[in-house]
Design goal:
By secondary structure, the chain is α/β, with parallel strands linked by helices. Helix 1 packs across helix 2.
Length: about 260
């Protein structure tokens, strides 16, 4: 057994990239919690596209939207990158933006068949994800990820903890970074933000390395844009922090403050 004095500094949280404002490290599991319609899917989509553009294998597996719907949102996001929240975007520039992250994998998943293990095998066998190495997998969302128990499919109300545990095992086994959208209890929509607000049993928050909460701060403006606050309820990699995003509703784009609003 190694002695504590000889361990040195293993640096377990060495980030391999920052995408859409969030840093990621091998094996880490992040949960992104919010009420419906706040922008979780769009933020995940931006992360995956930016990771792919940086040469990191990246995928978004979605139990909520079709592949066509995800591609539509991604194109609108490319328009936002090129021309801001409202201005007309030159088609050639939009295509060039999309091409930079063209290796991103978008999967429309079934909440009856596509378990964590099934998604893992699909990415390994069909899309060449590394058996061990830096990659980013986003899931939308945790509570719809199917989990098979001894007596059959685990009910949706109880599967969040099991799904989170499966994602954590996957991350540790492959060295992939995992981020999953997570549902909140209705009572937590307007609360102060507690780990107990996450839907499911206590393992949902326990298994995660990092939990972020998103909340709208005001009503959408006439242009469709709205301020969204983000803060950490839990973070094993460092101190908790809070920051603001601006969701450009017309283009499904979670804008960081450096992006500006035209």
């Amino acid at each position: 057994m190694p002695r504590a004095g000889l361990l040195g500094d293993p640096e377990p949280y060495t980030f391999f990239g920052e995408f859409a404002g969030l840093p990621f490290w091998p094996g880490g599991l992040t949960l992104l919690a919010a009420a419906p319609g706040v922008g979780k899917t769009s933020w995940l989509l931006r992360m995956v596209h930016e990771a792919a553009g940086a040469g990191i294998p990246a995928a978004l597996g979605c139990y909520e939207h079709t592949t066509g719907e995800l591609k539509y949102r991604l194109r609108r996001q490319a328009e936002a990158v090129v021309a801001g929240p409202h201005a007309a975007a030159a088609p050639q520039a939009v295509e060039a933006c999309l091409a930079r992250g063209g290796q991103a994998v978008l999967l429309a998943l079934s909440d009856r068949e596509d378990t964590v293990r099934a998604v893992e095998e699909t990415l390994l066998m069909d899309y060449g994800f590394p058996e061990k190495g830096a990659a980013l997998l986003a899931l939308d969302y945790l509570q719809r990820t199917p989990v098979v128990g001894l007596s059959g499919m685990v009910p949706e109300a109880r599967r969040g903890g099991e799904a989170a545990a499966a994602l954590r095992v996957l991350g540790r086994r492959r060295g992939w970074a995992l981020i999953a959208a997570c549902a909140l209890r209705a009572a937590g929509f307007a609360g102060t933000g507690e780990l107990a607000d996450l839907l499911g049993d206590e393992r949902v928050a326990y298994e995660a390395d990092r939990v972020l909460l998103l909340r709208r701060e005001d009503r959408p403006r006439d242009c469709g844009c709205v301020t969204v606050s983000a803060w950490t309820l839990k973070d094993r990699t460092g101190p908790q922090r809070s920051f603001e995003l601006e969701f450009w509703g017309e283009r499904f784009y979670p804008s960081l403050r450096v992006d500006g609003h035209g």
